[in-house]
Write a structure and sequence with these properties.
The protein has 128 residues and is mainly alpha-helical. It has two domains: 60 residues, no CATH class; 47 residues, no CATH class. The chain is 56% helix and 5% strand. The chain has seven helices and two strands; from the N terminus they run ααβααβααα. The protein has a two-stranded parallel ribbon. Helix 1 packs parallel to helix 4. The longest helix has 15 residues. The termini are far apart. InterPro entries: RNaseH_sf, Tc1-like_DDE_dom, Transposase-MT_Hybrid. This is Histone-lysine N-methyltransferase SETMAR. Keywords: Methyltransferase, Transferase.
Length: 128
């Protein structure tokens, strides 16, 4: 996947012209619109947070034009908070102080630590 240059801001122009098209291509999601609309297995549903590049008019127009569905993300979502504040902070702590030469190395390290979290911890986090 395309990485953003060091110290560059993610804005809606980059998000709609570089990031999203590449994600769709990478995940082989560039199926015909008719096929996606009629086949629930092929629909694309994005879960955006409230970042400005996700909520901009440019991004909204782009996603509407691509027939992409958005899952709502309320300003305060207690259902998602355990993952954000417990599990992901746990992974962040494990990665703290490490240096990576390439973006892919950082992503691989993150994935490895997330995969090491026992299923029971995910369940406990969701229950709480």
């Amino acid at each position: 996947m395309t990485s953003i240059q060091n110290r560059k801001t993610v804005n809606s122009e980059w998000y709609t012209t570089i990031c999203l098209p590449e994600v769709f291509k990478e995940k082989s999601l560039q199926k015909s619109l008719k096929d996606r609309k009629n086949n629930r297995q092929r629909r694309i549903i994005l879960h955006h947070d409230n970042a400005s590049c996700h909520r901009s008019a440019e991004t909204t127009r782009f996603l509407e034009g691509q027939k992409i569905e958005l899952m709502d993300y309320p300003p305060y979502s207690p259902d998602l908070e355990p993952n954000e504040f417990y599990l992901f902070s746990s992974v962040k702590n494990k990665l703290r102080g490490q240096r990576f030469l390439r973006r892919e190395e950082a992503v691989d390290a993150y994935k490895m630590h997330v995969s090491e979290i026992p299923r029971s911890e995910w369940k406990k986090c969701s229950r709480n």
